[in-house]
Q: What sequence folds into this?
């Protein structure tokens, strides 16, 4: 166990050393979440002004949606991009011939994804409070569970993306940035699930984030914790992690058979 | 009890579709020996090394490293071996010391700081420990790659062209250092190289590969004697060009 934790730390140390040496990388982590928050913050301020109600609940729902969706986005990108860093630095060969197990690799990537997400999202949360008076944590401790559920979903999607990179090499790299954006309409970030056409509601029901945002709206508008949506979010997270974890494992072994681990960066 | 050999390869085969990259390779590398793996481009050396490292799953056959079956127990073997190649980089933006610390963690090296200090002293890295790996000369990169490969005190070292792109002076320094290290540590080394003089100097036994097969093997002196040649380079050319010593003499005299 101790050796296993040390190997995970070795992988994290490698990436933390990279950030210590490069403040632009740190800045880049914060850039998009803050930019998104600013744009949506002004939109909500405008809408709130039209309604003559600066403390509009709608404003809170929009900003809360933006900030929480960034948790999923940054977790997914943090995982996938940390893996890509190894490909770009042509270091993957050394990593894969070290005693680092695939499960430890995944644990290291999840740890780095969490750190990257916190560095990216927390400044945006603080700015939302400072600029627009929106406190994400006014929903109460349940917001930590929302964070956790969205992080798990981000990791699950990233496992799938990493599996695609193992299978298709550099050609699949753009998925690291784009794939979760494709889920945005069905994640019901800014509108209730019932807004979607019935057929698409079935799709949304299978996405953990859609349940998180239903739960967030219940917390913001009614001040209650919706146990059903919270339970569905975590249940689906578990299912996604299991399925996509198996896909990752299968692709890793397929790459060992096909020789893709030797040519993955080419 | 006799210890398990460093490597035991039995009928090692790798097939990519219709292409047979490695064809039924069998050999036993004893503990403490330095062997060479020679062959032209496409002979199957890199594929063989990748299978020995567990990076590539053989289509058929079996590899045990230090007694561990690579199909079932590769991580136990990987903790006791290491690998160096100029074609696999270390993260360029990390300093030399940071890179070595990363691998000390990955290999769970006890007293990592002391080990890194020992390697820095032995491989003359002290002055470059704080420099980013990407800013090093080819010779410095080779020494850092060797330090990475030795960080876990491996019992088996796989070296893929360790002196490629080095000037003769630096290349000679690395070869001398490897000779000394091998004698002191008793580590087994499998060396893939295109530098025949290097192989003659370092290796007690040579596996000659062609089209995925071992076509001949023996000590450099035995191979030279068997082929009627003065050096391994001519043996290599004989095998690569399917010529005999007599044929070569005719070819040379009519050229």
A:
């Amino acid at each position: 166990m101790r050796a296993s934790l040390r190997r995970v730390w070795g992988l994290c140390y490698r990436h933390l050393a990279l950030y210590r040496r490069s403040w632009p990388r740190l800045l880049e982590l914060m850039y998009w979440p803050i930019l998104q928050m600013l744009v949506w913050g002004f939109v909500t301020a405008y809408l709130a002004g039209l309604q003559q109600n600066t403390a509009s609940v709608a404003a809170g729902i929009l900003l809360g949606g933006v900030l929480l969706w960034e948790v999923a986005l940054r977790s997914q990108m943090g995982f996938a991009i940390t893996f890509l860093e190894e490909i770009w630095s042509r270091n993957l060969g050394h990593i894969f011939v070290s005693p680092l197990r695939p499960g430890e690799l995944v644990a290291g990537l999840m740890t780095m994804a969490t750190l990257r997400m916190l560095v990216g999202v927390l400044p945006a949360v603080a700015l939302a409070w400072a600029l627009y008076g929106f406190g994400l944590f006014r929903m109460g401790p349940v917001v930590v569970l929302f964070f956790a559920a969205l992080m798990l979903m981000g990791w699950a999607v990233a496992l799938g993306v990493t599996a695609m990179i193992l299978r298709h090499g550099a050609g699949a790299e753009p998925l690291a940035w784009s794939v979760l954006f494709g889920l945005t309409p069905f994640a019901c970030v800014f509108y209730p699930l019932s807004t979607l056409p019935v057929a698409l509601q079935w799709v949304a029901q299978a996405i953990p984030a859609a349940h998180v945002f239903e739960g967030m709206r219940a917390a913001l508008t009614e001040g209650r914790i919706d146990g059903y949506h919270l339970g569905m979010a975590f249940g689906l997270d578990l299912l996604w992690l299991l399925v996509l974890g198996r896909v990752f494992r299968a692709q890793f072994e397929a790459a060992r058979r096909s020789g893709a681990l030797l040519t993955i960066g080419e | 009890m006799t210890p398990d050999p460093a490597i035991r390869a039995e009928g090692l085969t790798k097939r990519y579709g219709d292409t047979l990259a490695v064809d039924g390779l069998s050999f036993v590398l004893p503990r403490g020996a330095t062997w060479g793996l020679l062959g032209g481009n496409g002979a199957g050396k890199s594929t063989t090394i990748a299978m020995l490292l567990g990076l590539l799953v053989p289509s058929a056959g079996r590899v045990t490293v230090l007694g561990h079956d690579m199909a079932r127990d590769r991580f136990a073997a990987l903790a006791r071996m290491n690998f160096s190649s100029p074609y696999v980089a270390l993260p360029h933006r990390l300093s030399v010391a940071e890179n070595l610390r990363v691998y000390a963690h990955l290999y769970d090296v006890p007293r990592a700081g002391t080990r890194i200090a020992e390697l820095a002293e032995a491989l003359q890295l002290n002055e470059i420990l704080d420099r980013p790996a990407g800013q090093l000369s080819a010779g410095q990169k080779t020494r850092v790659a060797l330090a990475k490969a030795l960080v876990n005190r491996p019992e088996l070292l796989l070296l893929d062209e360790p002196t490629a792109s080095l000037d003769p002076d630096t290349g000679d320094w690395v070869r001398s250092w490897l000779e000394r290290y091998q004698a002191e540590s008793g580590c087994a080394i499998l060396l893939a190289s295109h530098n025949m003089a290097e192989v003659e100097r370092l290796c007690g036994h040579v596996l000659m590969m062609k089209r995925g097969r071992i076509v001949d093997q023996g000590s450099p002196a035995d191979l030279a004697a068997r082929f009627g040649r003065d050096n391994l380079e001519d043996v290599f050319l004989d095998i690569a060009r399917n010529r005999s010593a007599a044929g070569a003499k005719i070819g040379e005299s009519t050229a």
